[in-house]
Amino acid sequence: MRKIIDELAEAHRELLDGERKTVVLRRHYDAEIEDVWQACTDGDRLSRWFLPVSGDLRLGGTYQLEGNAGGEILRCEPPSLLKVSWLFGPDPGFSEVEVRLTGKDGGTELELRHTAEVPPEFWGQFGPGSVGVGWDLALLGLALHLRGGERVDEATFHQTDEGRAYITGACRAWGEAHQAAGAPADEVAAAVARTTAFYAPEEEAAPPAPPLQKVAPFLMFQKGDAEEAMNFYVSLFDDAKVVHADRYGPGEQGKEGSIKLARFTLAGQEHLCSDSFVKHGFEFTPSMSLYVTCGSEEELERLYGALVEGGQALMPLGSYGFSTRFGWVNDRFGVSWQLNLP
């Protein structure tokens, strides 16, 4: 039986390094060109080795891969040429993928070219392996599919011995292509290390899991201030502490050192927070607020004064008929608080 690690040697990798970066993958498949073409263009077959796809799958139409890229079908010349725009995220810039098929040696040679304008800071961190390893995994899936096998589970592939060997080998292979294109050896080594950490992270002992069937507020911060807010809140309440803080490390999607996930308690109640590395089109809203029952006038006034500073009073402290005194504020981080003295 053919070993998965042997698939690495089947592919030739190349980097065309200019203002736009092009990663090139070539490999041979023991399958007729019509079969490979259908596997790459038929929605049902794509879902079996790559990703589910929807859209108008014809020349000039658009497509969307589930949880991944989408774009326009720019060229479609069966059974030899497919070219699409490859757009992902809110501001993707220029990105195109071209697949060429050629009948050769009783089978099919596939050449994939992914050309994109890559932000310099991202390229400096990860180099060509950032997308190249992903395409290696995709073309591995195609090879297994054409032989009638099952695709690997990319979510857990790196946790297996053969999966980790394949991924780390692909990362090194793209490092060699990067260096062959003229990149300095130290820059290549750093990029390979970061790419490997992304695709095949080392397993770490997880913090103790909270009890099942427990509901806790989760605060997502989009300005990198989750830790500042958490420490501020902990300073205001009794029986309050930071329980655990998991941070983004080098090469991860979030800013290094920022909060990936933290748990903290306020008055004994567990809360969670994180720094989002994605800028969403929404913020905190007063429709969802933290409700505090205070034990005294002094506590109410102290909390109100601290939370409203730099924030906004939605309902100033006063008697509104339903309790002794009540106040409602948005704090300086945007989180909404209702403070009540029964």
UniProtKB/TrEMBL annotation:
PANTHER family in alphabetical order: PHNB-LIKE DOMAIN-CONTAINING PROTEIN, PROTEIN YJDN-RELATED
Chain ranges of the PhnB-like domain: 213-339
Keyword Methyltransferase among UniProt keywords: yes
GO BP terms in the entry: methylation
Organism: Nonomuraea fuscirosea
Domain spans labelled Activator of Hsp90 ATPase homologue 1/2-like C-terminal: 30-121
Family: Belongs to the AHA1 family.
Record's protein name: Putative 3-demethylubiquinone-9 3-methyltransferase (Glyoxalase superfamily)
Recorded GO MF terms: methyltransferase activity
Cited InterPro entries: ASHA1/2-like_C, Glyas_Bleomycin-R_OHBP_Dase, PhnB-like, START-like_dom_sf
Record's keyword terms, sorted: Methyltransferase, Transferase, Ubiquinone
Pfam family, one: AHSA1
